[in-house]
Amino acid sequence: MSTPMERAEQMARLVIAAAQQDNDCVVTSGLVDDVMNLHSEKEQGKASKAYVRRFVRKLAVLEGLRVILTNDERYWAIREQLHHMSGDEVHALRDSIANGGDNDPRADDGVLSDAIHVRLSSRLSPRRLDGVEPVSIRLWDEAEPDSMGSLLEHAERPGVVEALEVLRAAKVPVTRFPGRVMLHREWHSAQGPQGAFLWPGAGQTLEVSWFINGAQDEYGMQSRDALMVRAARNTALDDVADAFRGAGWTVWWVESRSTATRRALRVDVTPPVASEPQTES
Description:
Structural class: alpha+beta
């Protein structure tokens, strides 16, 4: 069993390694949190965050790393980045935040807002910004893009792209997963995901489910609501199957055997086999 200081030093070394490998030699409070959460089940993950930060500062000096842990450090690091941006670029950043509304995490970032306000004011830039090379990592959160019809990591897969084209051509709605964080009651409402959603299956097969008010199943519903949603989902998946059949895809139904009335769970589809090019004899 290691002492609290030993645990903190071990964790600090892991943070330093992560900064060198993945964060362009910059230690941020977010990186410290991420590394500690990653090792939360291990002994060093139980270290005091205050002690970890203290060791991080000592080790960072030896390794030549930039440390941005406090709001003041982050403010000046952002000021350095804004100092190297043109006025038009800073105005565009400010407008982008304003247009993002409450869904944009930058809207609640007071440090970023203050830095932008001062950069665009008529104040002279302090000498501490002259000749300073800013850190290359982004120091503020961006709004995550929405997922349309599939998870973002699958969106560029050829089969997924073709399947989404089939659905759109048939005017079948696809699910929109908001990139922003939604409350549970908001997610499971008319504002939640609605429509067809694609999951990659085995080989070239895609699994197509149907979301209604943020849910792709009937769990947790009262019997009357479940029957209404079941009928709506059955009809919607019928439309999905018709769209893919019309485009020459192979379609399989996946349905429940445990209900008295028909209950469609999803539709599995496979793209048509490409015909072999004919060769002249």
